[in-house]
Amino acid sequence: MHRHILIPTDGSELSQNAIDYGMALAKSVNAKVTALTVSTPFPTFAVEPGMVIDTPEQYGKRMATLAAKYLKVAKEAAAAAGVSCETMHIEHDQPYLAIIETAARRSCDLIVMASHGRRGISAIVLGSETVKVLTHSTIPVLVFRAPHQGIFTALASLT
After folding, report:
1. Ranges for the UspA domain (predicted)?
2. What crossing angle do the helices spanning 13-29 and 56-81 adopt, rounded to 10°?
3. I need a surface site. Which of 28, 63, 115, 157 has the fewest CB within 10 A?
4. Distance (Å, rounded) from C-alpha 153 to C-alpha 159?
C-alpha cells in the first residue's frame, strides 16, 4: 500500500509520538521513511531593533543544531524499528508548503504528522501547519492527535 512515508517533526513530544507511530506503520507495510524538519528563515524585519537577538549566522547555527537534534530522534526511532530512513532539514518561510513540496519531490505516498488538536480561538490565533497540510495536500495525510483529557479529569485538576 504505502511505499514512502514523509514524517515532519518539530521536536515536540507529540511529534515524537507521531514519529514512533509512523515508523511502526512503515515497518508494518515495508515502507521507507523521510523525516523532515523545517525552520523558518532568519527574520529580517523586526518592529524594534532590540527584538533581534541573533545575527543571521548565529540563527543559522541554532536552527541547524535544533534540526540535527530533532532528526536524530527520528533516525533512532527508525533504527529501533528496522526502517530505512533519510532525514532532511529545509529552510522555508511557510513550513506547510515545504512539507507538501518535499512529499511531492520525494514521491511520498503518505504524510504522517502530529496535531495538538487546538480548538476555538487558539486554533485560529496559533494556526496549524497540520491543518494547512490537510487543506492543501493532494497526498494522503494521517494525523496523529494529542490525547485529550476527559472533562472530569480537567475539572478535577482545577480543584
Report:
1. 1-145
2. 40
3. 157
4. 10
User: Does residue 141 contact residue 113 with C-beta atoms inside 8 Å?
Assistant: yes
Q: Which residue has the cell 496535531?
A: 115
For residue range 47-72, list pLDDT tens digits in order. Answer: 555 556 778 899 999 999 999 999 99
* Prediction pTM value: 0.84
Cell of 72: 536524530
Question: How far apart are alpha carbons 64 and 90 in whole angstroms?
Answer: 10
> Strands 85-91, 110-115: parallel, antiparallel or unpaired by DSSP?
unpaired
Roughly how many angstroms between the first and final C-alpha of the chain, as a whole number? 49
Show the cell assigned to 73. Answer: 530522534
By CB neighbour count within 10 A (0-12 exposed, 13-18 middle, 19+ buried), where does 123 fall? middle
Q: With CA atoms as reference, report the closest residue to 95 among 67, 69, 120.
A: 67
Q: How many of the other CB atoms lie within 10 Å of CB of 96? A: 22
